[in-house]
Amino acid sequence: MSKKLLQPKRCPECKKLGSWFAGDICNNCYRQNHWKREKKICSNCKRLLPLKAKGLCSGCYNTVFKLDYHKAMNYKKWYNLDIESYKKITKMCVVCGFDKFVALHHLDQDKHNNSTDNFVGLCPNHHQMLHSLKFKDEMFQILKEKGYSPKEKKLRTNIAGGY
To answer: Residues 53, 98: one domain?
Structure first.
């Protein structure tokens, strides 16, 4: 290689020193200001956008191909559960049978206890009722009737500072 190619030059647009040039301007300025990607209609959302792969725009591609992967990694990280166990637990609400959106609840209310026996699936309404003081006793009774053993979180009685 000649030494002339390795010498950094200054881009006339961004004024930064660089060694990668597309003609007279740096590669970054070319990609940002001069390179016009071809736009096509996304096969999923039907919008005219630059396509990423498989005929999809970047938003649809990430939703279709990466969303489940990231969900699985989050369940593994947060609850130490694989995706099959999570789906099995959150298949339906154990109280009412709602199956559209089901949240994961720790029966002993300890977020660090991630054993599969400690998890139960609840719909948003019943999950909120369980965390509400007004309906907590009623929800505990329902869960006990269903064969679960929820543990009530003890309230602190000796709070420093007079609160």
So the answer is: no
